[in-house]
Design brief:
CATH superfamily of the largest domain: Metalloenzyme, LuxS/M16 peptidase-like
Number of helices: 16
CATH class of the largest domain: Alpha Beta
Largest sheet: 6 strands, mixed
Number of strands: 11
Strand content: 15-25%
Oligomer: single chain
CATH topology of the largest domain: Cytochrome Bc1 Complex, Chain A, domain 1
Shape: globular
Amino acid sequence: MSEYQVSTLQNGLRVITATLPASQAVSVNLFVGVGSRCEPAHLNGITHFLEHMVFKGTEKRPSAIHIAQEIEGAGGTLNAYTNKEFTCYWNIVPFDRFPTAIDVAADMLLHSKLEQEEIERECPVVQQELKRNHDNPAAWAARLIGQAVYGPQPPGWDVGGTIELVATWNRSHFIEHIREWYKPGNIVLAVAGNVTHEQVLARAEPLFAEMQPGPIPPVEPYNPAITGPRVLIDTRPIDQCTLYLGLPIFGRNDPDRYALRILNDVLGAGMSSRLFLEVRERRGLAYSVSSGYGYLSDAGVFTISAGVNRDRLIETIQVCLAEAEKLIEQPVPPEELRKARDHNIGRFRLSLETAYAIGQRNGELLLTRDRVETIEEVVCAINAVTADDIQRVARRIFDRSRLHAAVVGPSLDAAEIEAALS
């Protein structure tokens, strides 16, 4: 039996299932292809605000507590998240409560009341979430590096918008946003757990039949010529600096994505990585240091991050960049490459241990890539990465002229940081 099955409902909504007969759970995940980069400037953050509002009640379940009790009363969990390109509403329940789980998910998505009174009540809650992100130095530095690399265009905007903007919307803005983006052709229902494809289709067909197909608006392409400041700082009277170094990279479908996985593993994923060994173990510069990356359809950002004392900030930047550039200059030795591949494959396999994780992976990949690579396809592609591949991708992305830095911490000097980047 294949790892998953896919069907398309008559109106264009896609359904992907993974049957896990030994599981005690079922995970229901609704992915909608709209995020903050799909919004016009005056509505930046409305996708995220709408994600909050969908939990506030339907005709059938009139309030947030009615929705929550149906899932939590079964021992389950429900939540949602928004990013730059999609929104996901999900719940997990014991497998025998699957009919309730899919009914609640569809009801929330299709029949949310969006009452003006609830919008006004939720607005301060959304504002508090934005303030909390601002008050967290690590979260804020991560936000700033995206702004620096992508610049003043939709990929660089905050997913949540601004405190001022979210207070300007009323019910009609939300209704119009749903009308524009919540089309069946822009939605994937991903279910994983102890349930069959046929059982899912039998429930999904009547629940989503009322959705009418229609065109999905185009998304403005990323423009690599637009960037933000080379250095973004936020000086605060706190004890430590949170540092992010960032570079623009390719989009999620690029053939080099597997080589980047292993490059990242070698450089900054885990306690065996070069950054950890050099920055923390050998030099004692920082408690935490790592590298990572995030993709959009047509762009991405590669980052190196660290938490470091102010007096070691510049040295840490220099050491991190030197470690990155070694990947250009010298091929990764065979034994280190083997360990990085094994580590990456092991983490990948272990990340797919739950019904939730499998449902999330399947739904996101079907929505964003139109197909789901099997687990063994991914393992083969990772195993095929060579030292030459890593060196080539390092040359492709590690370009100091395109490098940005974002720092939150005490007594910062942008000119000093900029000099360290050069």
